[in-house]
């Protein structure tokens, strides 16, 4: 059992470091920068707490409120146990010490250490995730963020086109991805206003969409687009329309950059995923393509001791939450979970419905028992996570007959 506990109240400039003993008294305090010298100072402080051959700095857990940053990465690289505490948890503990909940960097550092000293059993060190898995985490989260950015710029462009250029929305409204399609963006760059679109000939349209990647029914599609652009619509005065066309070009440039970022990060994330030893196990599951697998691996990691089956399902938001008091008992879905894992879990479970008879039968059975759509998918997701935990623990691929004995019955 550790005899000392350390807390770090981090900031962009100086980090307050406090060490407490078994009685909760602060025995050491310093302020360091997030530099190699600062890390050396922290490690030297922990190493010098006791002059004994039985004492090691690795026996001193370090509590901090963020899992990110260079300081945390440097401590983990030195095998220093780091425990991440949620800021909301720390705020509640602050009220136990002082009703006024006063705050300062120095006292917060000691508070972090005291939380681990008194309730250390409830807080676990950061998992021992490999560098390969952490790289997948970075790329998968960046790809997810890029997708959201692309959707934002798509909405901005669509809102602008609705104000003065409805033909551009009608042209691709029945096709997948709409104005995000490469051919749509290429044609909007060629004709950013209704007047320029009306002047386009069929051959110009066909050449543009073919250069953007369309290979099937090019002439038919060009003829349809020309008819849409020729159809009469309400118009703004010419000067206003031209100004809004310039705004379209600016919005289109942002959308093009967002689309390029999504494509680049998608390729990078899937490449990093395929290079990981667990990729074959993830890929053996129905509906788990390279991108879904990368997001799952990025959030779950590859530390075999990190999760139990129950803990993994709770972490992913797939386990129900029970509120029980006196004679009342309410079972609801878990809102506090890893949002990245919860989101991709819904997509993964939905994708299995057409790829796995067992998953489809399980989903239909939950619906027949009264579950609504989202609840049935969550239950299926929880079942898939249990199968995934077993396969990763035993280094075996997914087998339909083992996961869902009885198949479609």
Q: Would you mind describing this structure in some detail?
A:
The protein is of the alpha/beta class and about 400 residues long. It has three domains: about 5-125, Ribonuclease H-like superfamily/Ribonuclease H (Nucleotidyltransferase, domain 5, 2-Layer Sandwich); about 135-270; about 280-405, no CATH class. The chain is built from 18 helices and seven strands. Strand 1 and strand 2 (about 15-20) form a beta hairpin. Helix 14 packs across helix 17. The longest helix is centred in the middle third of the chain and has 37 residues, at about 240-275. The chain is globular, with a radius of gyration of 28 Å. The relative contact order is 0.08.
Structural topology:
Blueprint: E1 5-9, E2 14-20, E3 26-33, H1 36-47, E4 62-64, H2 70-77, E5 82-84, H3 87-97, H4 105-119, H5 131-164, H6 166-172, H7 182-190, H8 194-198, H9 202-211, H10 218-230, H11 238-274, H12 279-283, H13 290-300, H14 309-315, E6 321-325, E7 328-332, H15 339-352, H16 357-368, H17 373-394, H18 400-403
Parallel strand pairs: 1-4, 4-5
Antiparallel strand pairs: 1-2, 2-3, 6-7
Helix pairs in contact: 5-11, 5-13, 6-10, 7-9, 9-10, 11-13, 13-15, 14-17, 15-17, 16-17
Strand content: 5-15%
* H/E topology pattern: EEEHEHEHHHHHHHHHHHHEEHHHH
How would you state the average pLDDT, rounded?
Answer: 92
What is the approximate shape? globular
Biggest sheet architecture? 5 strands, mixed
State the domain count: 3
What is the tally of beta strands?
A: 7
Q: Which spans of ≥5 residues are poorly predicted at pLDDT below 50?
A: none
Helix amount, in percent?
Answer: 55-70%
Number of helices: 18
- Computed over alpha carbons, the radius of gyration is 28 Å
How far apart the termini lie comes to 53 Å
Strand order in the largest sheet: 3-2-1-4-5
Derived structural class = alpha/beta
